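[job 4471] stage=fold_predict status=RUNNING
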Amino acid sequence: MTEVKRPVFFCGENPGLTLYTPGTEQAAAVVSYWLCTDSPHGIGHALVLWLAESAQLGHGGIFTDNRSLAEVLVMELTRHFPEFQNVPVGELAYIDARCAHVYDGERYTVTCQTAETKVEIEWRNPLERKQILWPNFPAGEQTFDLNTAICPCRFGHIRVNEEEITGEVVVQSEDGKFSSSAFLAFAETWIGPIQV
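[job 4471] inference complete, writing structure tokens
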């Protein structure tokens, strides 16, 4: 049976990555990368990068080639993601950047470049592929219906001006099913917002 849902808020990809300080449950870095192929707010890229500490980049920033799109994605969705609950994402600066990504089925890389800074994010070794249907995803005083294909990855890396951010990916498995703090998200669609 065909089901039609409106309005479409976002279509594209949205991989995420959390690196933990080795041997702890303390986040060293949190990433949400948005590749928007269609939305009412235009298309483009937004790399939301929070760092516990970086000599070159402080606590990170939001790198984008479409600031209005990035602002909407951060305010309406990213700041409500579980991995960003203790991250002051609202304090991160918006930074104009040239953004690009490459994926070959094994390695997904994102590069954001400014005159002074080059940020590279890498996901590697997808462990499985699964569809996630999450009706009424909570986002403050509204919800969204989320449909996406998730690929947990074994490895993830962050480099700022060629300097590696120290941290490790946490992978868990049970009966051949995986979860990871590094994951790819393809064919992602957000429907809404739906007022609570």
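[job 4471] summary: The radius of gyration is 16 Å.
[job 4471] exit 0
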